[in-house]
């Protein structure tokens, strides 16, 4: 319980610090949303009136406290770009898309990388191991956005397995949305699959020479059973921490990949908001991304404790 409370406190402090930095950064960067909305020819009186309407004439600290208190209640203000539409409504509309894409990418990574990593470790030095190693090296070197463009060209334009740009929201057609997201999920997952395979292979190989493995073999267990029942649990301890980093990268890559596949998720909303200086949306999305990454790391820390009881002892 003490371990969980400590991690919970760290989570809250991290979110608070990120909110302060984010709000402060958007308060001091060059540019004026009032001039952006009214145009360069706007009179100082009109600019001052709009700044007062938006609350931009108030001190930064005062605006931050109000924003933080409202954000805790789920109110991130109103969008500048979408004519006063609540930012929370825009986020709730786009969050399911990015959540589905992230979940599909993570499932692909776990389902493919764990068996492949075990296979490469079991066949160490063989043709299979060499082929897997070569494949992972090549795949890791390809950025997700470039993979997205290749997948769009091959499977969208050539094979016509899907129609690029014809994304449908899950509220309209959940099945159609999931089918469309298979391709961006593959683009995000492939480089991460290669990383996890390589990391898991090395972790398994570091375990197979230990005494408990020889004991398991001496009891007549088959090699496959030894790997899955004995080696995998210990080998997964460092891999679990690595997967937390991978999940954070999945969320970051989804921002770019959503642009490539014209997916109306949080990432695309963020890019549009940045280009239009819609700071309430940008601040809310940054906090969403931070909260997602911190929460995932919190879950991974708890899972790490379950897998390795020595953490609880420490």
Written overview of the protein:
The protein contains 13 helices and no strands. By secondary structure, the protein is mainly α. It is globular and about 85 Å long. The model has no long low-confidence stretch (mean pLDDT 83). Its main location: membrane.
Beta content comes to under 5%
Number-wise, the strands total 0
Spell the H/E element sequence.
HHHHHHHHHHHHH
The helix fraction, in percent, is over 70%
* Mean pLDDT rating: 83
Low-confidence stretches: none
Radius of gyration: 24 Å
What is the makeup of the main sheet? none
- Number of helices, where a helix is a run of at least 4 consecutive DSSP H or I residues: 13
- Helix/strand/pairing category: mainly alpha
What is the 3D shape?
globular
Quaternary state reads single chain
Spatial gap, N to C terminus: 13 Å
Subcellular location: Cell membrane
Domain ABC transmembrane type-1: 95-300
Family: Belongs to the binding-protein-dependent transport system permease family.
Transmembrane segments: 9-29, 97-120, 132-158, 178-200, 235-261, 281-304
For this entry, give a set of tags.
314 residues; 13 helices; single chain; 78% helix; mainly alpha
Task: Summarize the topology.
Layout: H1 2-28, H2 33-38, H3 44-54, H4 60-72, H5 87-122, H6 127-140, H7 144-158, H8 174-207, H9 211-218, H10 223-260, H11 266-275, H12 279-307, H13 310-313
Helix pairs in contact: 1-12, 5-6, 5-8, 5-10, 5-12, 6-8, 7-8, 7-10, 8-10, 9-10, 10-11, 10-12, 11-12
């Amino acid at each position: 319980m003490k371990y969980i409370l400590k991690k919970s406190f760290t989570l809250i402090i991290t979110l608070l610090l990120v909110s302060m930095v984010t709000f402060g950064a958007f308060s001091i960067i060059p540019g004026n949303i009032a001039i952006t909305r009214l145009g360069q020819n706007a009179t100082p009186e009109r600019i001052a009136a709009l700044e007062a309407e938006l609350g931009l004439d108030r001190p930064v600290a005062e605006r931050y406290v109000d924003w933080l208190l409202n954000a805790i209640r789920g109110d991130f203000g109103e969008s500048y770009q979408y004519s006063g539409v609540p930012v929370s409504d825009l986020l709730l509309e786009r969050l399911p898309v990015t959540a589905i894409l992230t979940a599909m990418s993570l499932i692909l990574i776990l389902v493919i990388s764990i068996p492949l990593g075990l296979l490469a470790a079991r066949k160490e030095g063989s043709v299979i191991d060499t082929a897997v190693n070569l494949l992972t090296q090549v795949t890791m070197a390809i950025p997700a956005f470039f993979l997205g463009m290749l997948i769009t060209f091959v499977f969208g334009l050539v094979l016509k397995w899907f129609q690029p740009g014809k994304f449908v929201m899950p509220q309209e057609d959940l099945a159609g949305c999931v089918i469309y997201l298979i391709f961006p999920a593959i683009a995000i997952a492939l480089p991460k699959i290669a990383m996890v395979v390589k990391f898991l292979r090395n972790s398994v190989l570091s375990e197979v020479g230990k005494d408990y493995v020889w004991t398991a073999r001496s009891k007549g267990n088959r090699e496959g059973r030894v790997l899955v029942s004995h080696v995998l649990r210990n080998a997964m301890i460092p891999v679990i921490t690595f997967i937390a980093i991978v999940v954070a990268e999945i969320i970051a890559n989804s921002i770019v990949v959503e642009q490539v596949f014209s997916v109306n998720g949080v990432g695309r909303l963020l890019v549009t908001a940045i280009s239009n200086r819609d700071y309430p949306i940008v601040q809310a999305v940054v906090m969403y991304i931070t909260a997602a990454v911190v929460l995932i790391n919190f879950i991974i820390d708890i899972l790490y404790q379950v897998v390795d009881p020595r953490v609880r002892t420490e």
